[in-house]
Amino acid sequence: MISEHDTGPFEACPSPFNLAAHVLRHASELSAKSALEVLGASTSMIWTYAQLEAAVRGTGTGLLEAGLKPGDIALMRLGNTVDFPIAYLGAIAVGVIPVPTSAQLTEPETAKIMQDLDVAAVLRDPQVVCADHPRQVLLSDLEAMRACPPCAYDMGDPNRLAYVVYTSGTSGSARAVAHAHRAIWARQMMVADWYDLRQDDRLLHAGAFNWTFTLGTGLMDPWAIGATALIPDPDTPTDALPELLNSSRASIFAAAPGVYRKLLSQESAFGLPNLRHGLCAGEKLSRHLSELWRARSGTPLYEAYGMSECSTFISACPAHPARGDALGRPQSGRRVAILGPDGPVPRGAEGTIAIHRSDPGLMLGYINAPEETEARMQGDWFLTGDQGAMAEDGQITYLGRADDMMNAGGFRVSPIEVETTLSAHPGITQVGVTTVEVKADTHIIVAFYTGPHDLETKELEAFAAERLARYKQPRAYVRIGALPTGANGKLLRRALPAHFTR
Fold this sequence. Notes:
28% strand
């Protein structure tokens, strides 16, 4: 039996279609219901579905009145506030193409994005770092737009470009991933086969508003079925989350593994009577962490696997929990395979995890990089670059990254991008970057370098901080005599951790 899982195609996306209209499709019937609650230490800010829809559609009108038009690209430089998803959906509602980015990006990084994408405008909080651009829509303007009359949704082909996200590529530079409006339609496959999400659920996501994991799992997916999204105030410490879960009556909790690790560093058990289960994505969940969470909280954790190019498509859920160290199984409607050079390998054999090109959630491609887009395809399959094995029952075990990609707090980071940046330092001759496990289930990015003498850590940290987003910056620097290489002279990143000592 070959390693291919196919339950048949998912229901086709209707046409004409608009991503924002789909997300807010229940707003009129649930107008008085709480759509979003931003949870503070003592009070909550509540947005009803009527208020949310009015803000989104008013923003759409305001963006058109500001001179933007369908097809224009708008770079988002906003902070961790509710302004982010409102501006994001407001842009999509009228056909403007938003590019959500981390507030941690540096000025040179934003300048490169502007050049790559021919950005028409920047939606900007002045407190967020950004390169100069002749057209800026400031946060105060965006807030005022919410009072504008509601825009009409820009309906059209579900395959047209809706938004762009950036991901680190194996070439060493971040790639612009183009997604169609239909991407939100495909996310419905996660509702039963990962979330087990219902309209009466209250889903608390521990991430920031301006993180794509939060945008999708924490906000748009609950709104698309009429559930309530809960987001902690940005200043909320991790150890306050159990109390927030209780006081907000959260029924589902979503976070990256690092958040669960921090919560579990506390010795006390959690009393979470309202919680049905937790959701986890962004990096591999260890069995140890999963078992410890169940023991402390009394609830299971369900993991999902995906990537910027296709969001999540393999997952565990209450109806189909993961077995052993497996990720779970392909969601219903997905066509997933484990590929070798000649196609799907036998079940149980190792290969590359791949998803079929027909998947409605798969990207349109990398902008300005057709060769790299094509390189990720093998016939009709999109290659994730990650290794796995499929069992007889369809469950897939993750066996590591084939391309040495790193994971930093849920963000995929290319070691080549970090190495290229650090190699510009005058005291560094060569540099290799990888993640190192410093204690159970805790990994950090470490830079190993050669040079004439040891460099001050603070100097290197300052050098990196000026050029790389915080999540891309190494947490430790180690000078070694020579970088490990193979017979062909290429850097052996997997051999680097052996040179790390605390």
